[in-house]
Design a protein that fits this description.
Layout (H helix, E strand, L loop, with lengths): L1 H8 L6 H24 L6 H6 L2 H31 L6 H48 L4 H11 L18 H17 L2 H7 L5 H36 L11 H9 L2 H38 L5 H29 L4 H25 L5 H18 L6 H20 L19
């Protein structure tokens, strides 16, 4: 919903973020995957304890949990908009039901349930997106030709200005650069993805999985940005949007007011499938972090039964917290939710990705220095986000400040170094 909104309001410049995923796969395969595979960790943050100390592990895990509570809230908010855009159902009730459903099946299904439901939901999602494009083109006078003409005349794909360097505007260079570090966070420091590396049977299978993911990241560019471009032409012709319309709901509004009832129901199911896929991954990974990084770390003799019970309680509590934050978003009628999400990544996610890189790519960095770098980066990003600069700037700043300050601060603590054999790229084997 938020990706087509960007193409509807502007153009395809944000697609540079998808390309950034493809660009980092060789880095992941060469450096990061060997660490996570050979350490045989349950959470990504176990590496931080091995490389630095337990404080970095706990802080990294906590930042991940805070980020994903916000992420769950945004993902609950979007399908809520989908329904309220064409009905009088209470949005607070819708958000509560979405959250409850995701909590229940994550509670019952565990990691295996998350992965297999992702497979089914992914198929529904792509199929629904293609149907929107087809029906949109059919209902435009002049069809696909009109879409192309509108896109060229109104610069709805890419313009010359999109290639300029600017930290105050969303241009291709800064989006691409910022997205590299956003994706490094997702694939190296975010438990919901890292937990999947250990579900494959071999490192070769993990590599194939990453390349497959990169392939689909490229495939989805014309599909989801294409939706926004088609809807732009459609509403330019039909002028059906009311003044003050929340553009985050543009896709479900089109679906439910234009498509036949059965098809519309299927596509709205795709919207909910995408939400459930994201939420269930977040809930499952947050529960893993609380159990492994906190409970089992300090109470290693705790029974498996008590660990499972705690994991399920974490799913319930974090689900409730996510619903609570989504109710705030509903109450304030947030739009352009992709920018809101990227702000969360810059604040809670990318600084910890800088800490991971600091541990892997340097021998000199130590725990006190890394901790200072992480805290300074996160706090500075919080205040800088009030400046009005583009969210991708904060991702670049967050990574390099966490990495650079952490490295320099390490020199202030010469006695803080510990043995790093097997924990950096210099002894990767």
């Amino acid at each position: 919903m938020s990706t087509p909104e960007k193409a509807f309001l502007g153009d395809w410049t944000y697609a540079a973020g998808n390309i950034a995923i493809i660009a980092i796969v060789p880095i992941l395969i060469q450096y990061y995957i060997p660490f996570f595979r050979k350490l045989n960790v349950t959470t990504a943050y176990e590496y931080l304890e091995k490389r630095f100390n337990v404080s970095l592990r706990l802080l990294g895990s906590l930042l991940f949990i805070l980020f994903h509570i916000g992420r769950v809230a945004i993902v609950i908010y979007l399908p809520t908009l989908a329904i309220t855009s064409i009905s009088d159902i209470n949005p607070f009730l819708i958000a509560a039901v979405i959250g409850l459903l995701c909590v229940v099946y994550t509670f019952l299904g565990g990691m295996e349930g998350v992965i297999w439901s992702d497979v089914i939901q992914g198929i529904i999602l792509i199929g629904g997106a293609l149907l929107i494009i087809v029906y949109g083109v059919i209902n435009i006078d002049g069809g696909f030709g009109t879409v192309i003409n509108d896109a060229m005349n109104d610069q709805k794909i890419v313009s010359v200005d999109d290639w300029k360097w600017s930290f105050a505007a969303a241009t291709i260079p800064i989006i691409f650069l910022g997205s590299i570090f956003n994706n490094l966070h997702q694939y190296t420091a975010s438990q919901d993805v890292v937990q999947r590396y250990s579900t494959t049977t071999s490192i070769q299978e993990t590599k194939r999985s990453l390349w497959t993911n990169a392939f689909f990241a490229g495939i989805t560019i014309p599909i989801f940005y294409g939706i926004g471009t088609v809807l732009y032409s459609y509403y330019e012709q039909h002028q059906l949007l009311s003044e003050g319309f929340n553009t985050s709901a543009i896709v479900p509004y089109f679906v439910l007011t234009t498509l036949p009832a059965g098809v519309a129901g299927l596509i709205i199911a795709a919207v909910f499938a995408a939400a459930q896929s994201t939420i269930s991954s977040s809930l499952n990974s947050m529960s893993a972090c609380v159990v492994v990084d906190f409970k089992k770390r300090f109470y290693p003799e705790s029974s498996e039964k008590s660990n499972v019970q705690l994991a399920r309680w974490v799913i319930i509590v974090t689900g409730i917290l996510g619903v609570g934050v989504s109710l705030f978003l509903i109450n304030t009628n947030q739009s352009e939710t992709l920018d809101l999400f990227l702000s969360l990544v810059g604040l809670f996610g990318v600084p910890i990705a800088g800490t991971f890189a600091l541990g892997i790519f340097t021998k000199r960095a130590n725990a006190p220095g890394a901790l200072i770098g992480l805290l300074v980066s996160a706090i500075t990003c919080y205040f800088l986000q009030q400046s009005g600069l583009i969210s991708f700037f904060f991702s670049v700043f967050a990574f390099f400040s966490s990495f650079g300050i952490g490295y320099l601060a390490s020199f202030l603590f010469p006695n803080g170094n510990k043995k790093t054999t097997g924990l950096t790229v210099f002894t990767i084997n």
